[in-house]
Amino acid sequence: MAVALRQRSTMAPHMSSAGVDMALRQESLQLPARGASVAAARRLVRNRVPHWGFDEDVCGAAELVMSELFTNALVHTASDQILCVLRAQERRSLYVEVADQGGGPLGPMPREAGVEDESGRGLALVRALTEAWGDRPGAAGGRVVWAQLGALAR
């Protein structure tokens, strides 16, 4: 089964704190809300993050965060499409965002998974791997769940 996708890449100039133009690297990918799309979301990270100068540890953490956030949007909302966004600023901060179309709870709610539970650890992983994470209302409804990973680039 083929996965339909729409991908967009941008490099927009912005000003750093020193007043120097830096490249804002951003990649977005809209995917169907299906289990097979989780792998495509992970590939987005794997194909971009190393090229932006981040090391393997950051790439691996971002890949896992993208997977967890995408899976939560898939399982807990009534979305037909899920938008994945990667953004790197000044090669020190990497942002992962997943936007759903809504139809689920008001926002992500971390929970404590028991030893025998097969799910419920995703947001605990996100919390452990990131400097910060949260959610906000989406521009066209739904929610955007985001995470910030910080690292020094190679």
What would the keywords be for this entry?
154 residues, alpha+beta, Heat Shock Protein 90, six-stranded antiparallel beta sheet, 3 helices, 6 strands, 27% helix, 34% strand, globular, disordered N terminus, transferase, serine/threonine-protein kinase, HATPase_C_sf, kinase, Putative regulatory protein
Write the layout of secondary structure elements.
Blueprint: E1 6-15, E2 21-32, H1 37-48, H2 56-76, E3 81-89, E4 93-99, H3 122-129, E5 132-137, E6 143-150
Antiparallel strand pairs: 1-2, 2-3, 3-4, 4-6, 5-6
Helix pairs in contact: 1-2, 2-3
Protein name: Putative regulatory protein
Organism: Streptomyces himastatinicus ATCC 53653
Keywords: Kinase, Serine/threonine-protein kinase, Transferase
